[in-house]
Every structure is written in structure tokens, then in C-alpha cells.
Design goal:
Chains A, B: This is Ornithine cyclodeaminase. Chains A, B: Pfam families: OCD_Mu_crystall. The structure is a homodimer of 334-residue chains. Chain A is α/β, with parallel strands linked by helices. The first copy, chain A, folds into 2 domains: 133 residues, 2-Layer Sandwich (ornithine cyclodeaminase, domain 1); 168 residues, NAD(P)-binding Rossmann-like Domain (Rossmann fold). Chain A is built from 10 helices and 15 strands. At the A-B interface, helix 1, strand 3, strand 4, strand 5 and helix 3 of A face helix 1, strand 2, strand 3, strand 4 and strand 5 of B.
């Protein structure tokens, strides 16, 4: 683990520095390496402290704290979800996170996570799809073309070998923005007028929407055989952490004992993934704290070769550990 | 609520700026005004979302997240407790916190809370004592002379009118440091060789220790009639939040149904505080999230007249709220 340069400061990755970091590494390489880190941590899933996220719900949204620990490091993410924010020019989701040393309780990294969450969410989706999709698939439908959509498209390109994305959003300007941003990045991009048009010929269907008021995006007859999708229908369902997904995911619509498979067990080989090309597989992704933990560890690792961070004066460091008051006194004199 | 100057930045109070703020306001005025804010929030206790703190325990300590909300603002504190840290020149307790706008989920303040926690803990203890102590008391015993002790002494001076403190610590150098730091601040300071000597003539006994291995500081025959103490014996017991105190406080040694009084109800007048001069009252303080919330709101309020803060580039602010990827793309060109 990187040690802070002084006892009183914590390495801090601002939004600007996160953009520097991602551009320097390259967004596709970043998500590919991050997906490997996520897989690594999924494989040692039983080690992690799986505290449920702590949510504060209000009329317009939710503020959540997502902590976890592997016993050596501790990480948490602060994240909000306010679908109405975009009306006022604000982000639906903003986030930041902290990584700490379990042995001392001292934070060793603080970072913006609005961008990092988009990257880890896309990296996770693509990681899961790579293990569950039929091998020949090269076309993905991407329904919901908001802030996360370009990251999803590029993650599936880099990690799953997708070469065509079929975009649809109820807001055509969102699709235009997404298509424009994806231009020249090695993907064939098709903008579609309807979800039904978007899924035509797609072997993977990814839905990315925050607004629960229009949650039913795919009706049953839109999904063909052998498709891997990220929404609920007749499918073998894969999840991150059942106790959380049954509350937050699409499967909350299903019976509480509807069978689901924990994805980490596919990675360890404990249970099979896709068992036939005709099977419909579904990943009901709600995001889990270990994915943020993996992301925090990954960017911490990157800082060694890409030192895009500041030193945040976050921790009191008196001359003697018990002399907090003396530090306050003498700072006035100095 | 102070609005950040730009959508992408959050006002940040570093350790250095917290020291500037406290010195400019004055430590006694700071704790007095803070205690009023804490009282104000205690009086509207039923309004608060009282999530239990989320603790990650390890061999050497604990890392906790303490969130709460009054429905308008949301606050949380990150705090660790690692008694062994002082051996390596680190603080036992470090902390930072965030205040957010519930309507948008956006953070509106981030601050160091190592110093602020010492201030709010002392302000809370003194606030409670002011309502529970016999009116004539002017002498306090202060057992445990670590990082929080000077703050406790000055809070009881400013808020309760204490004019003499009797110090004791198992480590005499801690007592020497505390006494030296308190010199010339209007308190008579007596350094004592034993806890028994320290409590002689004291109308208030405050114990401040983090190490649970030597938790029994006061034996029953050390406590006289009419004393307000902060440790367990034969006493009428006041607590912040019973579900938390029964797990973390001194009263975990007592039966699960041992009667306790919630201090906020004393403030609202719903239940009486001290009912006779001879009564022994005890505040078993473990710290609660609302106290940190009050502290966050208080320092946010102070920033208006005392602008000791930086602008932290913590939040992504794309030109269009959905254009997170475009922001990343174009930042490279600009």
C-alpha cells in the first residue's frame, strides 16, 4: 500500500486528476485492468465484510454509504442517486470514496468517484457478460443513453469484443450525444427510434436507467433465445449479492425465493455460468461495495506510475499524539 | 445553507483551517456556541434519522461511519478508534465529515473532524453536566489526560462555570502536558497522583479514556453523594441513544433493562433531570451522530464570517449533466 508522504496528509484524486489519470492510461485499458481487479476481489468474496449499504432515503433521492473491508484495507463510497437532478444541470449520481489502512484506521486515499463509479459499473457489467455471453456475440443493444452509456459501450468493446452498439433512449438528444461521443472509437454505432429496434440482432442487451418510474423497458416478446440481458424476464438470473439485489434490483418484482446465482461463484468455478447457447442469462446489477473497493485499490496502484494527486491536509498530526490541544495552541504562535 | 461557489467544488476545512477557525472564534466561545447547537438539535431529536453507526471491527481497532439526517441536511462522520496508535506517534482517533443537501444529494461541506470531534465531545459533556450538576459545583476531577482532556476542562469552565480541575492519568507525563497546556487560562489546575486524590472535593468527575483494558477507573467508595460523574456506579444514568449506549457504553456491564434516561428528554422537559442535591447522576457518553451533525452545521455557519476553507474539486460537472464521458474526452483537448 502507498504510504502518505506525511502523517497529516491523505493522497487526494480530484475530478481533474481522475480525468488526467483515465486519459493517460486510456479509458479502455483502464476498464480492462479494473475489471481484472474486480474479478480478483470477486474470487475472494468470502473474505469481505459484506455490510449492507446504509441508505438515507428522501422524497427526491437517496444518499448511501457503501463500506467494505478485506481485513487489510477498508473502503467506503459516498454516493447519491437523484434522478431529478438533471433538470437543474446536476448529476443524477455523484460519488467520492476513501481507502483506509485497517491496522491504524488512517485514510490512505481519498478520491472523486463520480467518474470512477461509471468506469467500475461498466467494467463490472462487461466482466460478467464476458463470462456469460455466447462466444460469437458482437452486437449489443444499449438502452438508456445517459451519463454511463459511453462507458458501457467501450467496456463491452474492450472486454467482450463487441463491435456494434445499437442505441436507444426515450430522449433522442441523449442518443445523439452518446453516438457523437462514441464516433471514431472503433465501434459501429446505430441510433434507434425504439427499444424494439435496438434489440434487433443484439446478442447482449444492456439497460442503464436510473429512473424507476419507467422501469419496464423490455417486454417479454422483445427478447430472443440465447441473449444475455441486464433486465428481468424469463432468464437464468445472476446477481452480485442476493440480500441487496432482492431489495434494490429488478428481481424485487419476483418472488423472494426466485432462484438466483451469485456471480462470484461462476468466477471461482463453484457453479456453472451459461449452460447452453439458447439459454437467456440476465445480470441484475445494482453495484456492490466490493466493486468500489476494487476501484479504490486499482487507482491507488495507478498512482505509483501516474502521480495525478494532491496532498490533502485532512489529519491532525500533533508533535505528541496526545497533544491535540497543544497543536492548536502553538499553531497560533507559529 | 451556504451554496458552493461552483457546481464542481465542495468547501473543505483542512486541519490548518480548522485551527485558524477555532483560534479566531476562541476555543471557549466555539464550544459554548457549539453546545447551543447540539442542544438545539437534541430538542428536535425525534426528527432525526437515527441509523446505528456502521462499525468495521479489527484486532487493533474500529472504523466507523456515523450518518444522520434531519430531512433537510445529511451528515456523516468517518472516525477510527485505535488505542495502540499512540505507540507509533499516530492519533487514537482521527475523523473527517461531510454535510450534504438532502434535496440533491450533493455534498456542501467536507471538513477534518479530529479536532472538531474533541470539541463536540467536550461541548456535549459540558452541556449535559450543566443540566444535571448541582448548581454550586465549581470543582471537576478529570481522569484520563489524553488528547481530549484540555478540551473537556475548558468546556466545563466555559459552559458549567468550573474553576478548578483535578487531573490524573496513569501516565504522569500526560498529566504534565495537560496541566502545562491549561496554564494561564483561568483555571486552577491540580495534578494528582491517584484517581482517589483527584476526586476529593470534586462535584463533577469526568473520565476520558479510550483503552477498554483498564475501564474500571472509579470504584464505588470513591464517589460521594451529589456527584455528577461520567462512569458507572450507583447512579441515575443518562444516555444519548439507549440502543447504542447499551452496546458501546459503560452500561454494557449492567442488565439490558437497567433503567436509563434519554438526555434529550431532559432538554425538552419531558422528564426531570437531577431531582435532589444528593442524587448521583451519570452521563454515559459514547457520542452520537446528531452531535457531529450539529458540529458540521455550526462550522458551516461560521464560514460565512470566517472563510477559512478551500474549494475541493470533488464533483464532476459536465456541460450537460448526462455528458460525463464528453467531459472526459474534451478535457484532454482543452
Amino acid at each position: 500500500m502507498i504510504q502518505p508522504p506525511a502523517l497529516n496528509t491523505v493522497p487526494f484524486i480530484s475530478v481533474e486528476n481522475m480525468m488526467n489519470l483515465v486519459r493517460e492510461v486510456g479509458v479502455e485499458r483502464f476498464m480492462t485492468e479494473l475489471s481484472e481487479k474486480i474479478a480478483e476481489d470477486f474470487r475472494r468474496w468470502p473474505l469481505f465484510d459484506k455490510t449492507p449499504r446504509v441508505a438515507a432515503h428522501s422524497r427526491d433521492g437517496v444518499i448511501e454509504l457503501m463500506p467494505t473491508s478485506d481485513g487489510i484495507a477498508y473502503g467506503f463510497k459516498y454516493v447519491n442517486g437523484h434522478p431529478k437532478n438533471t433538470r437543474d444541470g446536476l448529476q443524477t449520481v455523484t460519488a467520492f470514496g476513501v481507502l483506509s489502512d485497517v491496522a491504524t484506521g488512517y485514510p490512505v486515499l481519498m478520491t472523486e468517484m463520480t467518474i470512477l463509479t461509471a468506469l467500475r459499473t461498466a467494467a463490472t457489467s462487461a466482466l460478467v457478460a464476458r463470462h456469460l455471453m455466447p462466444k460469437h456475440v458482437r452486437v449489443m443493444a444499449l438502452i438508456g443513453n445517459g451519463a454511463q452509456s459511453e462507458f458501457q459501450a467501450l467496456a463491452f468493446k474492450a472486454i467482450c469484443g463487441i463491435n456494434e452498439v445499437r442505441l436507444h433512449d426515450i430522449d433522442p438528444s441523449a442518443t445523439r450525444r452518446c453516438a457523437a461521443n462514441l464516433a471514431g472509437r472503433g465501434l459501429k454505432v446505430i441510433s434507434c427510434y425504439s427499444a424494439q429496434e435496438a434489440v434487433m440482432g443484439a446478442g447482449i442487451i444492456t439497460t442503464v436507467t436510473a429512473d424507476k418510474t419507467n422501469a419496464t423497458i423490455l417486454t417479454d416478446n422483445m427478447v430472443g433465445e440465447g441473449v444475455h440481458i441486464n433486465a428481468v424476464t424469463r432468464a437464468r438470473i445472476f446477481v452480485e449479492y442476493p440480500p441487496q439485489t432482492r431489495i434494490e434490483g429488478e428481481i424485487q418484482q419476483l418472488a423472494a425465493d426466485h432462484p438466483v446465482t451469485e456471480f462470484w461463484q461462476v468466477l471461482t468455478g463453484a457453479v456453472p455460468g451459461r449452460t447452453s447457447d439458447a439459454q437467456i442469462t440476465l445480470f441484475d446489477s445494482v453495484g456492490f461495495a466490493t466493486e468500489d473497493f476494487s476501484a479504490l485499490r486499482y487507482v491507488q496502484h495507478l498512482l505509483k506510475d501516474h502521480p495525478h494527486f494532491d496532498h490533502l491536509d485532512l489529519l491532525a498530526d500533533p508533535d505528541g499524539p496526545r497533544d491535540l490541544f497543544g497543536m492548536l495552541l502553538r499553531a497560533g504562535v507559529a
